[in-house]
Design goal:
By secondary structure, this protein is of the alpha/beta class. Helices cover 32% and strands 22% of the residues. It contains 6 helices and 7 strands. Strands 1-7-6-2-5-4-3 form a 7-stranded mixed beta sheet. β6 and β7 form a beta hairpin. The longest helix is centred in the first third of the chain and has 17 residues. The radius of gyration is 18 Å and the shape is globular.
Length: 193
């Protein structure tokens, strides 16, 4: 399954953080979002791990967040907001960069992790081609310059397509003028938000 998706520019790291916060909120509320599979694609230094760190923080992960470059996988637990009794939210951050053979995925026992509940974030998924279940989302990052990134989001599953459409409808909706007038007063009221 594929979609045209969405392409945009993150002009600075603050935009990456803002997206991560929106995504964390969505994953917490979208049906099945807490068990999403998200592939992160891009060259070295594109910002994949930075995005994951912001996403983990926004999801509620406390303490030090390490890159799984050498460990291949880092497990995390995100706490639920006060008053919720659902237990911790398991999140798995994979970095397959050091894999030389796609079958290393099977040998490492990752099939069990992917069968269990929890969010799976995967960097360098091409290194384990043919082993991973289809991603709900693919987030591809391209370096424009030291600060800017071109971002392309696409969905790989039906539920991922629904989430993408929901995100497009809620997070990218242009600001609406306040009141019946679209003149200067309405614009000023819009700007005050």
């Amino acid at each position: 399954m594929g979609t045209g998706g969405w392409t945009g520019i993150w002009p600075h790291e603050a935009a990456t953080q803002s997206f991560a916060e929106q995504l964390a909120q969505g994953l917490k509320t979208w049906p099945g979002g807490r068990d999403a599979r998200i592939e992160l694609r891009g060259q070295l230094g594109a910002g994949k791990t930075t995005l994951v760190r912001h996403l983990l923080r926004a999801a509620g992960v406390q303490g030090r967040i390490k890159s799984p470059t050498y460990a291949v996988v880092e497990p995390h637990q995100a706490a639920h907001p006060e008053g919720q009794d659902e237990g911790a939210w398991p999140i798995w951050h994979f970095d397959f960069y050091r894999f030389n053979d796609p079958h290393e995925w099977e040998d490492a026992g990752f099939r069990d992790i992917f069968a269990a509940a929890g969010l799976k974030l995967m960097e360098w998924p091409d290194k384990v081609a043919g082993q991973l279940p289809p991603p709900d989302w693919v987030i591809a990052l391209e370096v424009i310059d030291q600060d800017q990134r071109r971002v392309h989001l696409s969905a790989g599953t039906e539920r991922g397509q629904i989430w993408l459409q929901t995100w497009l409808d809620t997070c990218l909706k242009p600001p609406q003028p306040i009141g019946p007038s679209s003149g200067p007063k309405a614009l000023e009221a819009s700007d005050a938000r």
